[in-house]
Amino acid sequence: MVFSKVLIFILALCFSTGSAIKCFQCSSRDEGCDNLLSNDTQSVYLKECEGKDFFCRKTVQTIVDSNMFTIINRECGWSLNRKLRTNSCYQNDDEFKHEKSCQCFEEGCNHSSIPNPSTTLFTSLLILYLYLNH
Description:
22% helix, transmembrane
């Protein structure tokens, strides 16, 4: 009995319904794009990605000059960086800019702070524990 509950829970986590993922799609030049929350499902910037096999991406670029200004872009990604694990980031710095780009695979995950995968795992395990002991 417990095994079947665990199996159903794991399957529910692993399989999507087939619909496209929704990602925040905006730039820090857009009003309100700087401080998006993951639960902001009413945001005008949370939009469905066109097509399939998309994921969310957030890129933060700091231009190195006398002003050191930062640009944040949130978008749908389609060219996966295969060197990264899921929900990972990479840094690309040179003498002109500092760039951090993160990819993630959950709805609205490219909000103001990309969640730590260990936090997501802990939350899932806590929900599973509560479900099995209810």
